[in-house]
């Protein structure tokens, strides 16, 4: 009996820990589709879970970092949601592809327009962003989640080194090492292929020339031998003819 009670109590405790852990980790987050490489472009998803049992999420605001502004931000349409992209003037213009950019996206807002995130559900909001900074390891986005009962949850607390995760952490996008220039690699590969082809063609030309030269030499030798044979035959024929006349 005591053993059964202990086992039951342990199971309840374990279930409580799992429930609490799930609740603690259910916050707005951001993840790339594939990788988010420094200096490149990426598609990222803001994942928004509903943490309430009696209300639905109807609005998400994502504020973009001002220390590493992103000039190119394109949202993917989400059925049932209206999307608004807000830009702000930069104190220091950005240089992108040889052009000066004076404005960058400061906020993207998704507002329910027939859609909503119901209890026990989550929704992803995709964005194409770039050009990602080359001198940063991560980007911090501050998000605000609004429910249809007017409750507002601010996911704006930044993680401190060595500290526990804050109660309402801001979404963080981890950046990976810069990818190699695919165009440069392709060009180099094409150059190598061209060099190899030229070398192969030159070798074939030399082989063809050598074969032609060898063939010419062989033909000349054969003709020489035939000439000698014909000459010997002629001499022999002359000798025999002379003998017949003498006889």
UniProtKB/TrEMBL annotation:
Keywords: Membrane, Signal, Transmembrane, Transmembrane helix
Record carries keyword rRNA-binding: no
Annotated signal peptide: 1-26
Biased segments, Basic and acidic residues type: 193-207
Domain of life: Bacteria
Domain YncI copper-binding: 27-175
Chain segments annotated as transmembrane: 222-242
One protein family per Pfam: DUF1775
Record carries keyword Nuclease: no
Region spans: Disordered: 181-216
Protein known as: YcnI family protein
């Amino acid at each position: 009996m005591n053993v059964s009670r202990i086992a039951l109590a342990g199971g309840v405790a374990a279930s409580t820990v799992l429930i609490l852990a799930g609740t603690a980790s259910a916050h707005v987050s951001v993840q790339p589709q594939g990788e988010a490489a420094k200096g490149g472009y990426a598609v990222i998803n803001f994942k928004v879970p509903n943490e309430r049992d009696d209300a639905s999420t109807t609005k998400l605001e994502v504020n973009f970092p001002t220390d590493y502004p992103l000039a190119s931000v394109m949202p993917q349409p989400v059925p049932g949601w209206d999307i608004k992209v807000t830009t702000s003037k930069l104190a220091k213009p950005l240089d992108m592809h040889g052009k000066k950019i004076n404005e960058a996206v400061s906020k993207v807002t998704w507002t329910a327009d027939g859609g909503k995130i119901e209890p026990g559900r989550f929704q992803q909001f995709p964005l194409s962003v770039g050009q990602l900074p080359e001198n940063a390891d991560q980007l911090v986005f501050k998000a605000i989640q609004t429910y249809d009962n007017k409750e507002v949850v601010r996911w704006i607390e930044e993680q401190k080194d060595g500290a526990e995760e804050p109660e309402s952490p801001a979404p963080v996008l981890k950046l990976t090492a810069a990818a190699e220039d695919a165009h440069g690699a392709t060009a180099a590969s094409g150059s190598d292929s061209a060099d190899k082809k030229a070398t192969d063609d030159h070798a074939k030309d030399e082989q063809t020339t050598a074969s032609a030269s060898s063939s010419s030499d062989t033909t000349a030798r054969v003709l020489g031998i035939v000439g000698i044979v014909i000459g010997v035959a002629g001499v022999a024929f002359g000798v025999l003819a002379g003998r017949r006349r003498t006889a």
